Amino acid sequence: MTIYEVAARAGVSTSTVSRVLNGARVSAESERLVRAAAEALAFTPNRTASRLRGRRSAVIGLIIPDIENPFFTALARGVENRASAAGYSVVLCNTDEDPEREATYLDIAVAEHMAGVILAPADDASDVGRLVSHQRPVVAVDRSLARADVDAVTVDNRAGGRSAAESLFAAGYTRVACITGPVSVETAQLRMAGWRQAATRHTGSAYLDDLLRYADYRVEGGRQAMAELLALPDPPDAAVVANNLMAAGALDALHDAGLDPPGFGLAVFGDLPFASFGRRGIRVVDVPARELGEAAATLLLERIGGDTSPAKTVVLRAVEQR
Amino acid sequence: MTIYEVAARAGVSTSTVSRVLNGARVSAESERLVRAAAEALAFTPNRTASRLRGRRSAVIGLIIPDIENPFFTALARGVENRASAAGYSVVLCNTDEDPEREATYLDIAVAEHMAGVILAPADDASDVGRLVSHQRPVVAVDRSLARADVDAVTVDNRAGGRSAAESLFAAGYTRVACITGPVSVETAQLRMAGWRQAATRHTGSAYLDDLLRYADYRVEGGRQAMAELLALPDPPDAAVVANNLMAAGALDALHDAGLDPPGFGLAVFGDLPFASFGRRGIRVVDVPARELGEAAATLLLERIGGDTSPAKTVVLRAVEQR
DNA sequence: GAAGTCCAAGAAATCGATTTCGTCAAGGTC
DNA sequence: GACCTTGACGAAATCGATTTCTTGGACTTC
């Protein structure tokens, strides 16, 4: 089912068929003939061929570290909404936080001639050089990249961490701990820094390290970190937890100890999906995942459209909301 | 950066470059020259061109109804594991249960010359005709299709529903209700049918419709259905809930009524992610999402590899596990 | 009515990698 | 030494849609 067969059936040349299909000038008669032939043959243009010739593709790559984390799927949803409204399809790639898989997908993005890439980097040193040097637009999302020539959309993690901690102090808790993500992950550091700032202000003491735990952004890590905190000689009475998955684990550990919120204060980054009733008494810092995705897609589409202004970083607000 | 430039730099023809890159016979000397040139130019073959010529693509489409449902992301993970091990990449498409978006993605799959498609159909009448008539392999997953000439991988939903209900009766509950999904969705019907079978056996009565609610497979639907059941003059003391999202809503409604499990018996299809502590006392029918994805990918890869045996349906077991 | 303008539409080049076909030389056989 | 086999490798065709270049006819204009 090629354009040649359509042309033959319509009794015109392939150029005319292409023109009809792409909305260039043709006589009404030719148009009628071509449309009839295409209809009769159920013709679908071969995108591979058209892309090879036209060098553009209507595909956006979205590379995320963990497809099973609802935060990233909500983000993906945001990207998809914007992209499909603009006629682009979204290819989702899951790196499992593995820089090597990430590199593979970045290579694929180049080789597949994708129109652009939205990347939630596994590491702030992620190598997007290949994309950039091929003039392929890239937007970093959620986490920013070390290089300054790439657009980014992030949330104000430090303010969010501060606001989470402040809200716990304001509610009367006095020893507010922090469970954050891997040392190497920017969002984990910033959220922790926000907490540290608020905690220092309220307790006067800069010796907070007892109350700080680095975990892995996963359920089990959260559980274990909370168990450790509860086992301290002078345990905390509240905690800021830096993501949703760890919060699920932390809640579990709290429940084991008979300390369900709000008896123990808990403020969490990101919504706890599907855990609505377990969520009661928990303070949530709303991380606008979908909006992040939408903002990133908007930015990327502008770049694809030819916007060559200097790289910018969009920072969305993340504030404790309840 | 084309194969021509590599050839020029290496002082050989493009055929030789292609041969080196694809592992055909070449002299050691040519190989060395070509590899050096490719390295020096940071050459990445243009997949679009290679696909156009070779007519095969190393991309598998995975079309799912709800990317934010952990069941489907776990399934996607399974597909991805198998596919990437075999050198294929996975393109994830989200239909939002919308047959129209599904049709669009199916068309894209044809036009993009994807190697094959794994589809969790929004409707059992989903039109995969285009794929089939283009000889493009398709595997239905989770839900089967009306047409019999397409491979499918499903779970034994009826047995799962039966086992869920049986386990509640065995634990001493006597009025076991059922909250299932949309009437039009096969899995919802089958899970309900399993429940009905067990309930009929135990209660002797075939008049179970009071205790049956059709909802929408979403959190709010589950909450509302459970609220309705609890408001009955003669309310149930247990329920089978046909998916994870509705269970989250149902749990919420139960909590509002002061009836947390195991006071009220609850058996759920599929794991409740991130709700570990809320999950206590709940019976879970393990729906092997990842394994479904793996099985579907295995089947699809066989078909892509040229297996032309008659269409088959693989049924995985889903049994109450605790 | 000659010259100029305009437009539809066909022929052919093009995108970049793969693959077929043919050539040439080295090595083997009788 | 004539003839055949084998292997490396270059020239050119190929995949299918798009786009440039060209042609020819209709229509203006003075």
UniProtKB/TrEMBL annotation, chains A, B:
<feature type="domain" description="HTH lacI-type">
    <location>
        <begin position="1"/>
        <end position="54"/>
    </location>
</feature>
<keyword id="KW-0678">Repressor</keyword>
<dbReference type="Pfam" id="PF00532">
    <property type="entry name" value="Peripla_BP_1"/>
</dbReference>
<dbReference type="Pfam" id="PF00356">
    <property type="entry name" value="LacI"/>
</dbReference>
<dbReference type="InterPro" id="IPR001761">
    <property type="entry name" value="Peripla_BP/Lac1_sug-bd_dom"/>
</dbReference>
<dbReference type="InterPro" id="IPR000843">
    <property type="entry name" value="HTH_LacI"/>
</dbReference>
<keyword id="KW-0805">Transcription regulation</keyword>
<dbReference type="InterPro" id="IPR010982">
    <property type="entry name" value="Lambda_DNA-bd_dom_sf"/>
</dbReference>
<keyword id="KW-0804">Transcription</keyword>
<protein>
    <submittedName>
        <fullName>LacI family transcriptional regulator</fullName>
    </submittedName>
</protein>
<dbReference type="InterPro" id="IPR028082">
    <property type="entry name" value="Peripla_BP_I"/>
</dbReference>
<keyword id="KW-0238">DNA-binding</keyword>
